Amino acid sequence: MRKGINRFLFVGLIALCASVLAVPIGGVTSIVTQASAATTPVSTLTIGYMQSIDSLNPYVGLNDASYVFYGMVYDALDVIDNQMNATPDLVKGPTLADGVWAVPNNTGDPDMVGMPYGSVWQYNLTHDAYWSDGEPFTADDVVWNIWLNAAPTHYKTMWAYQPYSYYMEQAKKIDDYTVRIYFWDRATGEPKAAAYAYLLSIPMLPAHLLQNKDYSDIGMNWTGVFTQDESPNMPIVGTGPWMGTPSLYSEWMAGDHITLVKNPNYFWKVDKGLNYTIKFDRIVMKFFADPTSMVLALENKEIDVAEFPPTAYQAIKNDVKDGKVQNITTFDGPKITQWWTEIDFCMNPNSGVGTNPSRLDPVIRQALQMATNKQYIVDNQYLGFADPGTTIIPPINSYWHYQPNATEMFNYNLTAAANLLTANGYVDIDGDGIRECTISSPAVERGLVPEKTKLIYNMEVRKEYPEEKLIAQYLQQEWAKIGVQLNIQVYEEVKLATDAYSYKYDTLIWYWSADVDPNYQLFVLSTQAIGGWSDNMYSNPLYDRNYSLSVSEMDKAQRRVYVDNCQKIFYDDSAYIVLAYAHQTYAWRNDTFTGWGNWTTDPGRSLDNFWMGNPIWFDLEPITKTTHTTSTPWTLIAGGAIVAAVVVVAVVFLVMRGRKKEGSLKKSPLGE
Amino acid sequence: MDMRSYMTRKLIYVLITLFAIIAFNFFLFRVMPGDPVRILVPKGVTPEVREMIMAKFYLDHPLWEQFIHYLVQVFTLDFGFTVSVPPKGVPITDMLGPPIMNTVLLLGFGTILATWWGIWLGRAAAWRRGKLADTVGMAFSLTFYSMPTFLFALIMVMVFFGQLHWFPRGDPYSMNYQNEDLLGKIWDRAYHLILPVLAYTIEMMAQFALIMRSSLTDVLTEDYIVTARAKGLSDKQILKTHAMRNAMLPVVTVTAISFGWAIGGDIMVEMVFNYKGIGLLTWDAVLARDFPVLQALFLIMAVAVLIGNFIADIVYMYLDPRVHI
């Protein structure tokens, strides 16, 4: 009996192995079969990401993948076009001036009595936009969204869009499709002009579904997804060109990918013309843990496009150049999100145990700026896919960028850096190669640290960006040459973010990206942003004054003077060392979709454009790629079964033949 | 000691250990540095919001009350919410489902196959000690035992996905998974499991083979084997009835612990195959300092190892009657 069972098990095992081996054969067969037997072809654009969406709630998410997602499902009042200019979205078009303007204060309008020009803006809304659950989008939605962000009781908790909402007082409904937003100085309560109000990249959320929720719940706890009771089969309700599927939440929880489907009634088709029709059915955001996997996925048509880390991108570029891979286009150029990487110095004197407040002395930061060879970092860690950094508004935003002149510039010079430290009393007393603070050091004089405190700092870097770890390692070597020791800590970005916004660190490498108006970037480094977007607690009254003037100055040329001043002051303070203006490094398949366009002449169509209303969605056209909504793998099973049967028969035959030959027992291993 | 007493005693030990683990797990994460509210909400924490969060997570109660509350939570499988690892702000119990399912499938199948093939290989090598089969078998085992997992896994991906296109690159399932019917889902998962399972199995089977060979080699030199031979038993009978039964004891221990650890995932295999399992989640949670998630993961892993050991004790009793004397 046991013998029978064993034989049965043996044949079963062989059948199992055979079935496993049959899978690839079945898989190939199924590809062929599905191509002809498909009933519901679906064209899908699959985008690869090295980050997961951290939250589906636009008031909680922090990383770029999350913002891309919000940009797909929600709309803002106005957005960025191909040429990086503001263009109507939920406001009426065709030009921005048709939908948004600062209300004049010399027309006798009773609303404007005593109000400075630029402190009240009018937004004429489109009549054609609908929420994905069918409700119309109206002025009530805008009023509620502004109230959510700007009401004095909410403002601090609703931190996500503070760069826009800090100077907002309230929104008033004029009629169902007209809204006025009033701006003020939140500190004094006085009306204040807001020159940036032509571009408010705040995603509009559905008031009719959210107005009964508590604001702190929306800002802190809400997952971003409506329950089945709140919104049947519609977990995300936006007005955007893409919509979530009923399985969105479970897909997000599983962490592998999420699927979005086309909004068939997207209003741009009516508002802006038939050119604004989306020509494919789905977008899949696919998340990877490892860049090699993402490269393989692109090469094998598993994804259509992705942005790669520099090393992986360079490898793809080389393979394309050498003809090792076909049908892939690569693109690198300045990032339109104005992304730059920087070394943050925490400006909080009470940064906690294990940190070194001597970094608050600007002399040390300036010396470290001089000991940082940005060109080397660009050439080696970014493999040339970046430009050396200087000020906080990058050159891609050429009108607003300020480039320090020769006398202002901290050029790479280790000798000058070492001399600066020595001249300020930071010397290596005990000869261990690390400088100590002495009685004459500003850090000791200001009471930041006691004498003999060594210049040793921690540096946090993100694990998601391997090049940043390499930069930290390089800095560790370079700064050691001027007697400063760096200890590197690698964390996931969310942990780094927690430390940054708690102001509990020495230094870290992080990044900023901002929209095309300088207000966003200047705000985050102002004193008003502390406790919100400020990640290093920088505070300088002179900077704040210039920033405030830049907000209220309605004359663009004069505004530029204040923006330049802010950049100059911040550069000199060296509270950040702007390392590099990183480039976007995308690769996409040109045999699955057409219509990628020219990202050099039309930079706004990059997938980096996460400010909602990305123009590329309306130009991409699928070539051949179709997947299927349902498929029963009977062909695979039949193929597998046939192969398994053949293998089982072959093995049984071989076993039987082997038994016949077992006439003479081989020599026993236990001896004769 | 009869079997019932033996089992009862073992079960009591398991419960005591479980309580110790739960207590340790609770206090370990309470002594970690850092402000829990800051971890939960990095920006914009007003005093009112802070109070609300402290109350929501029961952090405004004395430690002993928090511990009682934690015990209740554990026994109702309520592990709280994720705080920093994506997906953020969702119930951990809901969030753990998919990675546990993925890992159990991957490492469960992998461990079964590794045990089976490892024992078979070790037995064959020991039985043919000093011969070609032994040399080849041990060379195979040592090669894969010493090879870094990520390297071997990467080679498999390059060859079977990159070059031959036989299997998917990785992932627990395809992007069309949600739209498949039940049979389609099973097939989809099976297809995606093959490469990671093979990578894990080949790495793991080496250790089973080495232990099995060493154990069986020792047993085959025992006097009772000579006695059995003298009684006229066939080689097959000696191997199955006398040698293997004793040689299996150390393998059972390793197998039980491996099954326990299987729930903890394999970070390297999961990373290379982009397979969202418990290993990858643990790695992310450690880097993100998501203490509630780590607390839940540690508890699950500890309980799994406990159960594994408990099962090993029972199997021991079956294999070796001396155990319950």
Structure characterization notes:
- The complex is a heterodimer of chains A (672) and B (325).
- Chain A has 672 residues and is α+β, with helices and mostly antiparallel strands.
- Chain A is globular.
- Chain A starts with a helix and ends in an 11-residue tail after the last helix.
- Chain A has two domains: 46-304 and 592-622, D-Maltodextrin-Binding Protein, domain 2, CATH 3.40.190.10; 340-583, Dipeptide-binding Protein, Domain 3 (Dipeptide-binding Protein, domain 3, Roll), CATH 3.10.105.10.
- In chain A, the strands form six sheets. In chain A, strands 2, 9, 10, 11, 12, 13, 14, 15, 18, 19, 20 and 21 form a twelve-stranded mixed β-sheet that branches. A four-stranded antiparallel β-sheet of chain A has the order 5-6-8-7. Chain A has a two-stranded antiparallel sheet with strand order 1-24.
- By secondary structure, chain B is mostly helical.
- Chain B has two domains: 3-75, no CATH class; 95-324, MetI-like fold (Orthogonal Bundle), CATH 1.10.3720.10.
- Chain B has helices at 3-30, 36-40, 47-56, 63-75, 92-127, 132-146, 149-163, 182-219, 223-230, 235-262, 267-272, 278-288, 291-319.
- The chains are: A alpha+beta (672), B mainly alpha (325).
- Chains A and B meet through helix 1, helix 7, helix 8, helix 10 and helix 17 of A and helix 2, helix 3, helix 5, helix 7 and helix 8 of B.
Give structural attributes.
heterodimer, A: 672 residues, alpha+beta, D-Maltodextrin-Binding Protein, domain 2, Dipeptide-binding Protein, domain 3, 2 domains, twelve-stranded mixed beta sheet, four-stranded antiparallel beta sheet, 17% strand, B: 325 residues, mainly alpha, MetI-like fold, 74% helix, globular
Describe the structure concisely for a colleague.
The complex is a heterodimer of chains A (672) and B (325). With 672 residues, chain A is an alpha+beta fold.
Number of strands of chain B: 0
Spell the H/E element sequence of chain B. Answer: HHHHHHHHHHHHH
How many separate domains make up the residues of chain B? 2
Global structural class of chain B: mainly alpha
Number of continuous helical runs of chain B: 13
What is the CATH superfamily classification of the largest domain in chain A? Answer: Periplasmic binding protein-like II
